[in-house]
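From the methods appendix. Each design record in this collection lists the tokenized structure first, followed by the designed amino acid sequence. Records were kept in a plain field format so they could be parsed without special tools. The example shown here is representative of the layout used throughout.

RECORD:
FOLD TOKENS (724 positions):
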């Protein structure tokens, strides 16, 4: 039994030595980089199994380390041998313990990570309740289980910021104009906020198109205070009498682009708030309600204000989805307020932090508010608010998570919104699904930088061919695929169609294009890469040879790492310039040796052909093709699942959705960007429990996401969650 050391100029050479000496089942004990290259310590797997079967393994009689310098005879040599034998025995005992531990963890739930404990404590100390904490921590990425505080806090800020809805553009909001009514309890700052909003509009558009209205006939001096502000801004102010209908007054203001209504303050427990809100409907004129919330209020009070005012709005048949925070400068802690906004799905427009008009009103900054909330953590957080039934847990809690994931996918994945629209077609009669799918594709014309072409053969076990995928400018796959049977015949004709209709300038081809297609690509100076097989015959140095036999002549280039089938794989690239007797256009052959990054086990070889003039720019393209190898398998899996879940869905719609979901799952699985890590964790969190990062698991999560979205919409909870 022996532990052996192998040294090579790179990992591939060292692993070749391991396999030659110990076989394919050798156990890698350690590897490290040295000045000479890569050093690997390995053990024959049979020896490890033998030791694992003996509960008290003895030290091996001998241990061989190739390339180690010979030791001189004598007592020192004997001591060294004894020390090495003891070290080897200890190493094998630790390996046995490690195997037993790994076996136990397959059936036992892993303990809660230190990162999860810290995040839970931070949220609690900042004033966030258990509903938001559970929602966030359920999507903690595996990559952050043992991260440092800086990475954890950055992730937490991103997650909280994504759940806090804010306006994207103040200018667009003000230019939209319309009729805005500020509602809320007494003393929350509605009159001052009315003046601040009017001032911001006047600063952009002048005083000619804005007017103020007050319905506050109860508070002494209310009219006068607003009239003073109106006079300073040189805009008109109109009081609304208690018996005067709002639509009658608004008819007099139809020449005004922006009307702001300052309403009478009422306690959230006052039953008359329903009547007040109903009065603000304004007849044919659409009035937009905005709730004012005092940042210094107790969490219980905030919960009661939001719940009662929104219930009053629903009872009156109007929506109340926007809010403004007032008196932020008086609040010692903002976490409970942000928690309430996230749970109720309110969109935050502005934050008021003083009495000055208009200076002390700022557009809501989600990131800044979240950072402020986390910066004011306290070891003794205030008591949690009593959450009304249906808020923060159950359906709406799931709705928030679904809405957050959907928003992230729409932002990051090209064509995901179109894929959602395609999924929605399943609710229509089958007779119109195909027609609507055609219209959806028409809307996507001209939005592709390139095309990932798939083989024209049918998938194994199916009667369909995998769709092609549009590529965006960054090389990402579009979530709305192109069905093969809707394209013209002939490769050159299809390439021309892709350029005219979708603007494609680069092409990833499943096989070497024929002469006509290659000439078409050359005359337009387009970039392309084609997959090739080892037996394909090419010309090199005047001799016709199989492509695979030329790999040993290729010059090595790089060893990038990719994720294939859920594991890290090193891609050893090499290249070789060719001459092709069929055309005067020279080609370059590309080869890739694939090996598992952890074990060094060889996984196979890939070949490509590309124009010589493309040079090393072809690397990005051929790696994209390598990433796409799993797409037909994922598409078939999604196609079968959709057939069971939606039997009335026509096949071409089902195939479109299946291929789109496969593309999304593949992109999320392979990307190492932070946004992808966050979306992966959030998606897998929807499934519950700890899930391994793989394209198959992400595909299951995406299918679950679509079903959950449909269920929430059907139950009428979509209004608060932005689910359409």
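DESIGN:
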């Amino acid at each position: 039994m022996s532990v052996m050391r192998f040294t090579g100029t790179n990992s591939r050479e060292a692993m070749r030595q391991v396999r030659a000496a110990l076989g394919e089942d050798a156990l890698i004990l350690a590897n490290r980089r040295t000045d000479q290259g890569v050093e690997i310590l390995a053990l024959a797997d049979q020896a490890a199994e033998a030791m694992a079967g003996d509960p008290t393994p003895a030290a091996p009689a001998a241990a061989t380390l190739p390339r180690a310098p010979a030791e001189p005879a004598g007592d020192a040599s004997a001591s060294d041998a004894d020390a090495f034998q003891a070290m080897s025995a200890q190493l094998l005992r630790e390996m046995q313990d490690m195997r037993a531990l790994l076996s136990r963890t397959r059936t036992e739930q892993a303990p809660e990570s230190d990162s999860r404990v810290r995040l839970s404590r931070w949220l609690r100390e900042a004033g966030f309740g258990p509903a938001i904490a559970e929602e966030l921590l359920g999507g903690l990425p595996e990559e952050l289980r043992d991260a440092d505080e800086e990475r954890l806090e950055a992730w937490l800020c991103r997650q909280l910021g994504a759940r806090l809805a804010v306006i994207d553009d103040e200018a667009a909001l003000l230019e939209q104009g319309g009729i805005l009514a500020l509602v809320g309890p007494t003393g929350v700052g509605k009159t001052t906020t009315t003046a601040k909003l009017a001032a911001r509009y006047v600063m952009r558009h002048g005083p000619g198109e804005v007017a103020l209205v007050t319905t506050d006939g109860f508070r002494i001096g209310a009219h006068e205070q607003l009239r003073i502000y109106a006079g300073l801004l040189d805009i008109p102010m109109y009081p609304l009498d208690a018996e005067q209908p709002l639509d009658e007054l608004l008819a007099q203001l139809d020449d005004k682009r922006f009307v702001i209504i300052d309403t009478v303050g009422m306690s959230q427990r006052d039953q008359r708030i329903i009547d007040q809100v109903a009065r603000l409907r304004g007849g044919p004129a659409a009035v937009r309600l905005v709730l004012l919330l005092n940042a210094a209020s107790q969490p219980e009070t905030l919960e009661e204000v939001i719940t009662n005012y929104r219930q009053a709005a629903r009872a009156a048949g109007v929506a109340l989805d926007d809010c403004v925070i007032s008196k932020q400068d008086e609040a010692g802690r903002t976490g409970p307020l942000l928690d309430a906004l996230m749970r109720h799905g309110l969109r935050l427009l502005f934050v008021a932090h003083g009495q000055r008009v208009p200076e002390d009103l700022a557009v809501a900054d989600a990131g800044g508010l979240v950072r402020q909330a986390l910066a004011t953590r306290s070891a003794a957080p205030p008591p949690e608010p009593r959450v009304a039934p249906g808020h923060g847990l159950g359906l709406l809690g799931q709705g928030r998570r679904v809405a957050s994931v959907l928003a992230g996918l729409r932002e990051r994945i090209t064509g995901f919104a179109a894929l959602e629209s395609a999924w929605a077609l399943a609710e229509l009669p089958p007779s119109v699904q195909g027609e609507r799918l055609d219209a959806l594709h028409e809307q996507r014309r001209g939005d592709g930088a390139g095309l990932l072409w798939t083989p024209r053969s049918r998938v194994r076990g199916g009667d369909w061919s995998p769709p092609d995928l549009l590529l965006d400018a960054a090389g990402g796959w579009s979530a709305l695929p192109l069905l093969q049977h809707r394209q013209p015949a002939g490769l050159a004709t299809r390439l021309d169609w892709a350029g005219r209709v979708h603007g494609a300038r680069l092409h990833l081809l499943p096989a070497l294009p024929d002469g006509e297609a290659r000439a078409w690509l050359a005359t337009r100076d387009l970039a392309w890469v084609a997959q090739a097989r080892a037996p394909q015959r090419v010309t090199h140095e005047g001799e016709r040879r199989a492509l695979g036999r030329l790999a040993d002549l290729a010059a090595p280039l790089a060893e990038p790492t990719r994720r294939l089938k859920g594991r890290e794989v090193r891609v050893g690239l090499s290249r070789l310039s060719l001459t092709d007797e069929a055309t005067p256009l020279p080609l370059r052959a590309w080869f890739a040796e694939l090996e598992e990054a952890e074990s060094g086990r060889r996984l196979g070889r890939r070949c490509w052909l590309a124009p010589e003039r493309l040079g090393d720019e072809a690397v990005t393209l051929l790696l994209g093709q390598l990433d796409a190898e799993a797409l037909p398998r994922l598409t078939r899996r999604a196609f079968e699942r959709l057939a069971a879940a939606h039997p009335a869905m026509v096949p071409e719609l089902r195939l479109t959705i299946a291929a789109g979901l496969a593309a999304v799952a593949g992109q999320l699985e392979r990307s190492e960007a932070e946004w992808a890590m966050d979306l992966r964790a959030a998606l897998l969190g929807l499934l519950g429990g700890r899930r391994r990062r793989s394209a198959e698991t992400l595909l299951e999560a995406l299918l679950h996401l679509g079903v959950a979205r449909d269920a929430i919409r059907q139950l009428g909870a979509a209004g608060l969650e932005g689910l359409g």
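APPENDIX NOTE: The longest strand covers residues 567-578.
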